[in-house]
Protein 1
Amino acid sequence: MPTIRSLSQSMINKIAAGEVIERPASVVKELVENAIDAGSTRIDIALENGGSNLVRIVDNGCGIEPDQLTLALSPHATSKLTDADDLFRILSFGFRGEALASIAEISQLTIKSRTAENNEGAMIQSNGGQHSETTACGMPVGTQIEVRNLFFNTPVRRRYLKSITTEFGHVTETFTRLVLPQPNIHFTLKHNGRIVHELPPTNDPLTRIRQLFGEEVVRDMIAIETPPHAVVRVSGFVSHPNQHRPNNRVQYFFLNRRFIRDRALQHALNEAYRGILVSGRFPLAFLQIELPPDMFDVNVHPTKMEVRFLDSNRIYTGFLGAIREKFLQSDLRSRLAAPPSGVKATETAPPPWEVAEDPQHTLDPVAAEKKRQQVQDWIAKIETAEKDGRRQTTDVRREPAAVSPREDYSRLSIHHLPNREKTADGRKTEPQSLDCAKRGAQSKNCGSVNVDSGASAPGSVHVVQMLARYLVMELPDGIALIDQHALHERILYEQLKERMKAGRQLESQRLLVPVPVDLSPNEFSCAQENAEFFRTLGLHVEPFGGNTMLISASPAVLSKTSSEDVLSAMIEPFLEVGKKLGREELLDELLHSMACKAAVKAGEHLSASSMQHLIQLAAEEINSHHCPHGRPSTLVFTREEIDKMFDRT
Ligand code: ADP
Ligand code: MG
C-alpha cells in the first residue's frame, strides 16, 4: 500500500521552481520585474555563457531592509499583497512571492541590498536553498542579485539547456519584452563582458523601439492612441502596410506594461489589416493596453503571460476599433519609392563590403557602425550619380540579368543538365516518369507545343497549359496531368540536394547594393549563429550593428525572391517552436522551402518553350512525380483506364 507523505519544503520549492524557472531567460524576467517593482530608474543586467553560469542584476530601487532579507528568499513571502482582494487589483509585476525562493533553490545565489535609510547594505548567500547568516556589506542604495550555476542541483533540467547562443537568444527576447514598455528606465545588457544593449532613458516610446529594432522599423510606423476617456485605452505603434513580416514575431502586446500573449488581440490586429496586407504577411505592432486592474485576472498562468479578461468581447472590439479608426484617417497608400535605378558595379568605386570583407563576421559595434556608414555613403554616391542621369538599368539589387522571367530557362534549372548518365544507361525506368523521348502523335490543339527536343528527346511533346496551373501532356498510351508548381519544385529540390550532396556550395548572386535587414533579437542571434551554414546555401549575411544583418549575396536560384524573404525563410525552421530538427532535416527543410519559393507558381502563364524545358527536365529527374511535400506532381491516366471510364471496353 503506498504511503502518503508530506513533501519537504525543499521539494515543494523545487517543484514551484519548475513552473516559473525554465531557463536563464526566466531568471532575468523575474529579477528584472522585481527591480522594476522596486521603482528602479536604472537596471544593469550581465550574463555569462547565455546566463547558465551567471545572471547578475543590479538596480537602484528601494532596496530591502536587512531584517527582511531572509524573508525575501522564503517561499510565499511578498511585500506586494496584503489581503486576498489585492489579488484582483494587481499593479505590480510580482505578487506570488515565490520567484526569489525558487531561484535560490536551484542555483547559488547572492543577494545584497541597501535601503536609503541605511548607510550600509546587507547580504545573504544561498547554496541550493541553504542560506547563510545575514552579513553587512558596503554598496549603493538598491539591490544586487547574482545567480550562478542555474540548475546545478537538478542535473536533468540543466541538460535541457540549449546552446549558449540559443539561451542568450531567449534572454534578448525576454529583455525586449521587459524594456519596451519601460522607456523611462535606463537598461544595459552585457553578455560575456560585451555590451549588447545600452538603452538610455527616454520619454519617447518610439525611441525605445528604435534603440531595439532600428531606424527601418520605426520610419513609417503609425501611432495609435485612443482618447483618454475610452474604456479600453490602447496606445502604441503599428506598421505601415509597406512593412510586413512573414511571421508574427514582431507583434508585441502589453497589458499595463506586462507583456502578454493573447490570440484574440493577435486576431484583431490581423483583422485590422485585412485587405491591406497580402495574406501570409504580418504587420508589426507595439501596442499597450491599459485597463483597470479589476477588469482582468493575471493569476491564471505561472509566468503571467496569459491573462483572463472580464469582458473579452469589449476588449477585442475596443482594440480593433482603435486601430481601424486610425487607419481610416491615415494615408495607407504605399509610400514605397520606386527603386532607384542602379549602376554597373565596375563603373564606380568598389563597394565597401568588398574592400573591407570581415572574415570573422564579428559583432564589434564600432566596426559595424563604421561599415554601416561606408555602405550608406556608397549608396548615396550611387544615387547622386543616378540623379545625374548618367546610367540606367532596371534592377538595383541584382547584377544585371535582364531576361523576361518566363523565357529565362536558367530559372527552371539551377544548372543546365547535360544528358546525365542516368538517362543514358537506362536506370531511369519509372513506368510513369515523363519520358518524352518516345512521344509519337502530333496534335493541332490550340496552345499546344510541338517540340523538337533535340538529341535528348528526338520525338515531339504535346503539352498544353490549362487553368494557368496544370499541364496536360499526351503520352504514347495515355495522358499525363501535371501540376506545374509541384513538378518544378521537385526538380529544383532534387538539383539542389544533389549539389549539396556533392559537397558544393549553392551558387550565390552578389547584390549590387547590400540590403540591411532589421531582425528581432531572437532572429538576429539565429542568423548570426548560422551565418556559415547559410553561406553554403548561397546567402551571405553579416552583423551590421544592433539587431541588423547585412545581406550581401543571395542564392542564385532564388533570384526572383527578395533577399529579406530568403533570410526569413532560412531563419524560420530554426525558430519554429516545438520543432527540434537535426542538421540533416534542417538542411532538407531549407532546400524544400528554397525550391518552393523558386519554382513557377500556380497562376503563372508559361511560354511554349518554358513548358518544353520543364518537361525535358522532368524526364531527366527520377523523383519528379511527387513534389518535395509528398503531393503528386503528375497524374497519369492510361488509355485503358480512360476507355474503362467511358465504358469502352
Ligand atoms: P514577488 O515579486 O512575487 O513579491 P519575489 O520572490 O520575486 O516575490 O520577491 C519577494 C520580495 O522580495 C518582494 O515582494 C520584494 O519585497 C522583495 N524584493 C525582491 N527583489 C527586490 C528588489 N530588486 N528590490 C527591492 N525588493 C525586492
Ligand atoms: Mg517577483
Protein 2
Amino acid sequence: MEKIKMTTPLVEMDGDEMTRILWKIIKDELIYPFVDLKSEYYDLGLEHRNETDDKVTFDSAYATKKYGVAVKCATITPNAARMTEYNLKEMWKSPNGTIRAILDGTVFRAPIVVKGIEPCVKNWKKPITIARHAYGDVYKGSEMKIPGPGKAEIVYTAEDGTQTVELIHEFKEAGIVQGMHNICGSIESFARSCFNYALDTKQTLWFATKDTISKKYDHTFKDIFQDIFDAEYKEKFDAAGIEYFYTLIDDAVARVMKSEGGYIWACKNYDGDVMSDMISSAFGSLAMMTSVLVSPDGNYEYEAAHGTVQRHYYKHLKGEETSTNSVATIYAWSGALRKRGELDNIPELMDFADKLEAATIKTIEDGKMTKDLALITTLENVTVLNSENFIKAIRETLEAMY
Ligand code: NAP
Ligand code: MG
C-alpha cells in the first residue's frame, strides 16, 4: 500500500524505560509501514531532560500549543532514588505537571473495552470516561488543628482593605478546620473542555456536585457549567444528539453503577481522583486505559494512563523476556493520529487510526495477549506473547485489513 501522507507534524514526546522500548517497536511495526510519519520529535527521556535543564519539556508543550496535537510516552517523575540513578543536576518536576500547567487542561481517562476482559460491573457494556478537574479544592487547601475553645472564621480582605467575615465554628473543645478555594476561570476552562470533548466523542456528559449542601462553593460549579452550556453549547449538543445532564454526586454514583456506560462523567478534583481508580480497576487494568489532556483552546495531548513500567525494564536490561502491555500506548498513537486527521481533513489517517485500534482489539479477542491480560481474561486457549511479539501480532492483524 502507499503510505498515508500527513500535512502537519505531530508533536512526539518520547519517554523512559519500558515504555520507551515499546515506543520504538510501535513506531517500527505499526506506524512507519503505514504512515509517512511527520513528527516533531522531543526526547523527554530523563537523561535528555537533565542535559537540557528540562527545557525540552517546556519546548514540547509550546510545540503542542503551536501544532495542536501531541503523543506522549510515559516518563519518569524524578524522586531521590532517580537523582542517584541518573546523576541528575536537579530533581526535575513531573513532565505531566509542566505540560498541564502550560496547556491548562482537563484530563480524560477512558477504559479500552475488549471481549474477554469483563468489567466487574456486569451491566457496563461501554466505556465510562472520567473527566477530572485538575485544579484546586482540597489539593490546594490549608488546614489547621484547633487546640481548644475559640472561634474560627473565614476572612476575605479585598484589595481596598474591606473585609468579609464568615463564622466557621465556635469551638468549645479541640477540633480541626480546612480552607480551600477554586477559581472561576479554571472552572470555566474545565467546563469548556468537557463540553468540547463530549462533542468530539459524541457522548453525553454527566456532571455532579453536592450543591444542596455546598450552596455557594459547589453551586458555583453547577452554575458555571449550566451558564456556559446554555450560552455556547446547547444547540451543538442538540445537533449532535447528545445531552448535558447535571445531578447530585450521590445520585450520580448510584446511576453509574446501574448504567451501561458510554458517557463522560465530569468530576470535581477529589471525586475524579477517587472515581477514576474505581472505574479503571472495575474495567480491568491500568494498561487498558487511555488518557488525553484537552485544553480549553483545543490542544490535545494523548498518552497512556500507566507509568514507565520500571520493573519490566529492569528485567529487559538483564536480558530477560518481558510481556508488557502496549495497548494504552498504541491508543495514544491512534488517538493523536485520528485527531491530526480530523484537524487536517485527512480521511485515510482517521481510517488508519480506526483500523489500528480494531486490529489491537481483534488480536486480543483472538486470544493473543500479554501476560497481564492473560491473568484476568475469561477467554480460553490464550497465547501469551512477549512485548515485541504482541505488537508484531497486531501488525499481522492490521496488514490483513488493508
Ligand atoms: P507503572 O509504570 O504504572 O507500573 C506499576 C505496575 O503496574 C507495573 O510494575 C506492572 O505490574 C503494572 N503495569 C503498569 N503498566 C503496565 C503495562 N503496560 N503492562 C503490564 N503491566 C503494567 O507505575 P510505577 O512502577 O509506580 O512507576 C514507574 C515510573 O513511571 C515512575 O518513575 C513514575 O514516575 C512514572 N510514571 C509516569 C507516568 C506518566 O508519565 N504518565 C504515570 C505514572 C507513573 P507488575 O510489575 O506486577 O507486572
Ligand atoms: Mg487516585
